[in-house]
Each structure stands twice: as C-alpha cells, then as structure tokens.
What we know:
Distance between the termini: 9 Å
Strand content: under 5%
CATH superfamily: Ferritin, core subunit, four-helix bundle
CATH topology: Ferritin
CATH class: Mainly Alpha
Number of strands: 0
Largest sheet: none
Helix content: over 70%
Number of helices: 4
Order of helices and strands: HHHH
Radius of gyration: 18 Å
Amino acid sequence: MNPTVCSKSKRQSENRRRGRSLGELISDVDDAEVLDAGLISSAQAVEHYEITRYGTLAAFARRLGRDDCTRILAETLAEEKATAKRLTELADRKVNQRAAAE
C-alpha cells in the first residue's frame, strides 16, 4: 500500500480520537480517492448500525405478536441490507482500489 495513504489513514484515525468534526476531517484529506473510500466506509457503518437496530426491533415485534410491525420492520431491514450490499460492492469494485493506488 502507498505510504501516503497509510499516513493519511493514521492521521484520520488520530483525528477521530480527538473528536474532530466530519467537516474538519473531510477538509484534512487531500486525496479525493481516499476521501471517497472514507465516506463509503462511514456510510457502511451507519447501515450496519441500522441493520442491527431494525433486526432487533423486528425480533421484538415478532415475539410480541405484532405482525403489522414485524412486516414493516422486516421490509425496512431488507432495504438497509440492500443498501449495505450496494455500498460494499461499490467499495470493492472501484473506490478502495483507486484509494489504495494513490
């Protein structure tokens, strides 16, 4: 991997520990490819969080016999999983490879 990418990744990790805002982190990344990879990674983290929440809520609704809620939560869960899959495919096919090449 390119030492510049590793250096930028390390700096970004240190910034997160210091609690810098997303805007500050974005402005700190000079490489558009690395920024794209970081943004997709952040979006994936949000999707995974949502998947765990909707999955848990659907299980609770099912346990409580709330078929109406279970159906809606299951639909939402499927949408979140589909979005996470698309983000992963985008990262794997294009963005991560370009970021690593920089």
